């Protein structure tokens, strides 16, 4: 059993982020989620923040620290997509996705590090995607932002590995969420054909890997990319 910690999950009001927050609550941790709208799951503290806004994140962290204590586990999950083919992609389509998915992780993690260094314990878990390394037509912005998290985690590992802080990447494949449910049935069937496991994953399967990475059992794992993708990426 791991020690009870204070956890912050960005974008914890729906989908994978929500499942991650639920699992941390079930394991007895004190859990806060950031959300632009909506509420996190039962047992969590929801704070309003947009990860592209440093001042809002500072205020959110102050609120969490006052209510729960210093954050030592951060899950950078908040992300957006603006999919379109490269030739049609505007500068704004590119910048907005990179600023949220990569810039957001930078801002959140940077704000959390002081508390981790003081505690000589920290878990930085970045939620990437199989397309970060596998690629996906129409997702140059998203794929770039998600693959960048690998360099982020590995550089942070070199900077802070000796201080009891690990930094890892979880790369989900096709997961059953509200977003995938909106795809046409033919498209969903086609995607399923390409997955060796023959099915989509569940958000709780991603959450199980994330909480394990945050546990004492994973203290010697850092700079790793862990796929949760039914075999579609094959280690890409």
UniProtKB/TrEMBL annotation:
Q: Which InterPro entries match?
A: KR_dom, NAD(P)-bd_dom_sf, SDR, SDR_fam
| Gene from which the chain derives | fabG
Output the SUPFAM superfamilies linked to this UniProt entry. NAD(P)-binding Rossmann-fold domains
According to its UniProt record, the EC number is 1.1.1.100
Which Gene3D superfamilies does UniProt cross-reference here? NAD(P)-binding Rossmann-like Domain
Question: What keywords appear on the UniProt entry?
Answer: Oxidoreductase
Top enzyme category: oxidoreductase
- A single GO molecular function term of this UniProt record: 3-oxoacyl-[acyl-carrier-protein] reductase (NADPH) activity
Q: Which residues form the Ketoreductase domain?
A: 5-178
What does the similarity note say?
Answer: Belongs to the short-chain dehydrogenases/reductases (SDR) family.
Q: What is this protein called?
A: 3-oxoacyl-ACP reductase FabG
């Amino acid at each position: 059993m791991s020690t009870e910690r204070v956890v912050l999950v960005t974008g914890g009001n729906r989908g994978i982020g929500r499942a991650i927050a639920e699992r941390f609550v079930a394991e007895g941790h004190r859990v806060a989620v950031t959300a632009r709208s909506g509420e996190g799951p039962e047992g969590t503290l929801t704070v309003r923040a947009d990860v592209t806004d440093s001042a809002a994140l500072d205020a959110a962290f102050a609120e969490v620290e006052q209510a729960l204590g210093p954050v030592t586990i951060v899950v950078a999950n908040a992300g957006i997509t603006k999919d379109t083919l490269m030739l049609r992609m505007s500068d704004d389509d590119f910048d907005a996705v990179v600023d949220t998915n990569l810039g957001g992780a930078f801002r959140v993690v940077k704000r959390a590090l002081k508390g981790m260094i003081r505690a000589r314990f920290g878990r930085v878990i970045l939620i990437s995607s199989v397309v970060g390394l596998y690629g996906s037509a129409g997702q140059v912005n998203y794929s770039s932002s998600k693959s960048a998290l690998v360099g982020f985690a590995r550089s942070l590992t070199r900077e802070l590995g000796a201080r009891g802080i690990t930094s890892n990447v979880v790369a989900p494949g096709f997961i059953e969420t509200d977003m995938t449910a909106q795809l046409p049935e033919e498209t969903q069937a086609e995607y399923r054909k390409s997955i060796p496991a023959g099915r989509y994953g569940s958000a709780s399967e991603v959450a199980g890997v994330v909480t394990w990475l945050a546990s004492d059992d994973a203290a010697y794992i850092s700079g790793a990319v862990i796929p949760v993708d039914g075999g579609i990426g094959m280690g890409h």
